[in-house]
Design goal:
Bilac:Na_transpt, transmembrane helix, 79% helix, BASS family bile acid:Na+ symporter, transmembrane, BilAc:Na_symport/Acr3, Na+/H+ antiporter like fold
């Protein structure tokens, strides 16, 4: 592709009407409410009882992955908007599909669910902090942050509304009306996920010519970035002395990012900047493929004696 055409991705703005943006925000809010309905108080307390595996995972999620992403951007030298999209993805918490993928990978679902619970809260602070910090250290991405006058406080407020409020509402509903929460948990999760997928598909359809023109540019970067995240999660766990089941859970949690939150931030603060939007959107597709492939590979490797795969209930699948 002609270099002049490649550079256009830094000027392209993907279309999303104000009403469409409100629907997108509502969709991820519903998704996070579904996640919250799946969490119990014990999931938050577990890190106090068995802190090593979740602690290693959270460090890999919020410290190592953003730092290594910054180095990867320096090595690959993608276009500025693509680079900032990679930094944004690395700044997001784990995705809502990580628990079921941990189960498929025969990992420790208790570790996975605890990381989901804690990372969702931590992201309210860590996502704006990492995006601002690592984005400002790269001169080219720093120009984008300066051009949009990005305020970490504004990002914090948005992330709190999108993640924090649904998390609080879900926990209040679970504790106040446990029977109702049990009945609506599974259908609500399915509805919220399908609703979000429909919204993303509608956005892609409205911007299909841009998506087709530029997605090939980001495939390689996302492939390398996601492989880095999966390996970083797994090997940080193994180096820290975690068992196979725990390391598999950390691997999946770090490799499956909340790209939905990333999309919300791209359209709320960066006006759908082309490289950022397509990197985040393609990550949302690719991490499912890569996560399932990783889980399949793990199923072919028996757990060591003394380690057992968790049952469906441990991952809230039954």
């Amino acid at each position: 592709m002609d270099p002049s055409v490649l550079g256009q991705i830094d000027q392209v703005r993907l279309n999303f009407s104000p009403r469409g943006l409100m629907v997108l925000n509502a969709a991820i809010g519903l998704m996070m409410l579904g996640v919250s309905l799946d969490l119990k108080l014990e999931d938050f307390k577990r890190i106090l009882v068995a802190p090593l595996a979740p602690g290693i995972g959270l460090a890999a999620q919020f410290i190592l992955l953003p730092a290594f992403t910054f180095l990867l951007v320096w090595i690959l030298k993608p276009l500025p908007s693509m680079a900032l999209g990679m930094i944004l993805v690395a700044s997001c918490p784990g995705g809502n599909l990580s628990n079921i993928m941990t189960y498929l990978a025969k990992g420790n679902c208790a570790v996975s669910i605890t990381m989901t619970a804690i990372s969702t809260i931590a992201a309210i602070f860590m996502t704006p902090l990492n995006l601002s910090l690592w984005g400002s250290l790269n001169p080219e991405t720093a120009e984008i942050l300066q051009a949009v006058s990005l305020s970490p406080i504004d990002v914090f407020v948005t992330v709190f509304v999108i993640l924090g409020i649904p998390l609080i509402l879900g926990q209040v509903l679970t504790r106040t009306f446990p029977g109702l929460a049990d009945r609506v948990r599974r259908p609500f999760k399915i509805f919220a996920l399908v609703f979000f997928i429909l919204i993303v598909c509608a956005a892609l359809a409205a911007n299909w010519k841009y998506f087709i023109a530029y997605v090939g540019m980001v495939m390689f970067a996302v492939f390398i970035h996601n492989a880095l995240a999966l390996n970083l999660g797994y090997w940080s766990g193994r180096v820290a002395g975690l068992g196979q089941a725990d390391a598999r859970a950390v691997c999946i949690e770090v490799g499956i990012q909340n790209s939905a939150l990333g999309l919300v931030l791209v359209f709320n603060f960066f006006e759908g900047l082309g490289g950022m939007a397509i990197v985040v959107a393609w990550w949302g597709v690719w991490h499912i493929i890569a996560g399932l492939a990783t889980a399949f590979i793990f199923t072919r490797i028996p757990l060591p004696p003394g380690e057992t795969a968790t049952d469906p209930e441990a991952c809230r699948l039954s």
